[in-house]
Amino acid sequence: MENLKGKVAIVTGGTAGIGEAVSRRFLEEGANVCIVGRSKTKLESLQNEFGERTITISGDVSEYTSHQEAVRETVKKFGKLDIFVSNAGVFDGFVSLEKLPENRMDEAFSSIFDINVKGGLLGVKAAYEELRKTNGNIIFTLSNASFYPNGGGPIYTASKHAMLGLVRELAYELAPEIRVNGVSPGGTITKLAAIPSLQDVVETIDPETRQKFIESRNPLKLAQKAEDHNGAYVLLASNQSRAITGTVIESDGGLGVRGMPNSN
């Protein structure tokens, strides 16, 4: 459990869901971690829990200054930066084109792309000079919606496809000093909700139905938990993957081989 011993990471969206799970696992693996999020209460709780091995930053990933602060404070505290995890993201609640309110399309599009796409780009821009010093690496949290339809509505799916483009372009541009990869989780049980401007048009589903729905969509019949993806992040963040860049690990229960529905 010391694959990341001595390394220093920043994790955006680290106060809940996959981001919190990754932050906790990185700490278990020996890393020091800067956790970036919006919930001041949760940030304070995590700081108290992990003490000197973490710093917490309250910020908005769509603002460059938040990323600059995270990088500056991380290097000030720990002396370097090895890993940047661009995990913060928002969702459209599967709202289809037909159900998108015309008077809220601009707002919804901007909200989702500002966090999911611009947030990642700004984070890398702020971090890459420090990552270059350590031959570090970048990991984006993508989605099954980066590859397949019906992983969200058209705005979310488009944003996640754009993030796949970022992984590939940045892997090309930042080589050989910095590796850039991604993890693509499938349906995962978290508290991720639709952005506020679309919540009133989202079809609500009770937790049990949602779990069965997710299980029905992948060959392994898994409704994944946030922790199920930790291994992929640890591998990509560690020296064991020093030959891997521009790659996405699809941690999705096998969606790419689902084929025709099995009647059994």
Layout of SSEs?
Elements (H helix, E strand, L loop, with lengths): L7 E5 L4 H12 L3 E6 L2 H11 L3 E5 L5 H15 L4 E4 L18 H30 L2 E5 L12 H21 L4 E7 L2 E2 L17 H9 L8 E2 L4 H8 L10 E4 L13
Parallel strand pairs: 1-2, 1-4, 2-3, 4-5, 5-6, 6-9, 7-8
Helix pairs in contact: 3-4, 4-5
Organism: Salicibibacter cibarius
Pfam families: adh_short
EC number: 1.3.1.87
What keywords describe this structure?
seven-stranded parallel sheet; oxidoreductase; two-stranded parallel ribbon; alpha/beta; 7 helices; 264 residues; 2,3-dihydroxy-2,3-dihydro-phenylpropionate dehydrogenase activity; 3-(Cis-5,6-dihydroxycyclohexa-1, 3-dien-1-yl)propanoate dehydrogenase; Rossmann fold; SDR_fam; globular; EC 1.3.1.87
Question: What is the gist of this entry?
Answer:
The protein has 7 helices and 9 strands; from the N terminus they run βαβαβαβαβαββαβαβ.
Low-confidence runs? none
Q: State the end-to-end CA separation.
A: 39 Å
Beta-strand percentage? 15-25%
Q: Helicity, in percent?
A: 40-55%
Q: Care to describe what's here?
A:
The chain starts with 7 loop residues before the first strand and ends in a 13-residue tail after the last strand. Helix 3 runs parallel beside helix 4 and helix 4 packs parallel to helix 5. The strands form 2 sheets. The protein has a 7-stranded parallel beta sheet, sandwiched between helices. The chain has a two-stranded parallel sheet with strand order 7-8. The mean pLDDT is 95. The protein has one domain: Rossmann fold. The longest helix is centred in the middle third of the chain and has 30 residues. Helix 5 links the parallel strand 5 and strand 6. It has 264 residues and is an alpha/beta fold.
